[in-house]
Structure to design on (276 residues):
């Protein structure tokens, strides 16, 4: 009788496993996620060890402080996926060989997929710089919007994004100016989110800064690369920085992508004062 109960339990377990796999295509990768996060959590548990200094040169003693919490994200980086469907992106971010991920993926119908705990480091920004911050992945949350790069973002998708941004801003006290795009932190390498992205209306809701050029007079001494640098752009390649700036702040000027008109300079001057 006991043998029978054991067999029955085994059969039930197998059935449950097969059922969950059939109904959740990500059951396998969810399991991998749990295993990986468990390993990371385990690495946090021991008292501080003496990895950094050679104890023969300088002895180091482990004395655990009682006052600490987790490091928290301070930037939000917005992307478009440049893929053809949400499903395609979920697949890309659950294949180990792609080496790319994001914390959130938002589909066109407004569905939000949370793919990584906000406290963990997603592989979304790549080689990037904003102001003097490098390794943006370590300090940011990455949000991917399902969009192929040459189409508008549906209202349903933006509504979900705004709700998510609102929660993130509140939970982590992220400064208004720190909601930026992938193109902003990687000029010359990335151009997302595209000029279709509604940065102006997002700024009106408290996510990112915007400008007001009414009565703005650009001074004679104005230095455009310096102004771009003040905002945060990496100006190592000035033309690439101008391009990123224009995708974000002058999306309507689709022709003169790498040049600054008199109006652009007004925008840039006004923004540089707001970011200061
Ligand atoms: Zn991107």
């Amino acid at each position: 009788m006991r043998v029978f109960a054991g067999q029955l339990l085994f059969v039930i377990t197998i059935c449950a496993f097969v059922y969950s796999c059939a109904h959740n295509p990500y059951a396998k990768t969810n399991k991998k996620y749990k295993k990986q996060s468990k390993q990371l959590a385990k690495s946090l548990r021991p008292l501080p060890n003496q990895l950094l200094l050679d104890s023969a040169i300088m002895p180091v003693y482990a004395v655990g402080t009682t006052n600490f919490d987790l490091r928290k994200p301070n930037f939000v980086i917005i992307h478009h996926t440049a893929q053809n469907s949400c499903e395609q992106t979920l697949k890309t971010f659950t294949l180990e060989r792609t080496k790319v991920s994001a914390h959130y993926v938002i589909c066109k119908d407004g569905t939000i997929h949370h793919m990584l705990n906000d406290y963990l480091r997603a592989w979304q920004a790549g080689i990037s710089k904003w102001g003097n911050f490098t390794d943006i992945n370590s300090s940011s949350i990455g949000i991917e919007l399902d969009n192929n790069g040459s189409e508008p973002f549906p209202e349903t998708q933006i509504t979900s994004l705004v709700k998510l941004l609102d929660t993130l801003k509140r939970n982590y006290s992220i400064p208004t100016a720190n909601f930026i795009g992938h193109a902003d932190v990687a000029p010359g390498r990335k151009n997302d989110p595209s000029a279709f992205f509604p940065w102006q209306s997002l700024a009106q809701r408290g996510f990112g800064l915007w400008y007001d050029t009414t009565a703005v007079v650009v001074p004679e001494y104005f230095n455009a690369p310096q102004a771009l640098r003040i905002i945060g752009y990496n100006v190592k390649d000035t033309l690439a920085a101008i391009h990123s700036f224009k995708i974000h702040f002058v999306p309507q000027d689709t022709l003169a992508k790498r040049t600054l008109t008199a109006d652009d300079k007004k925008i840039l001057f006004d923004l540089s004062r707001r970011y200061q």
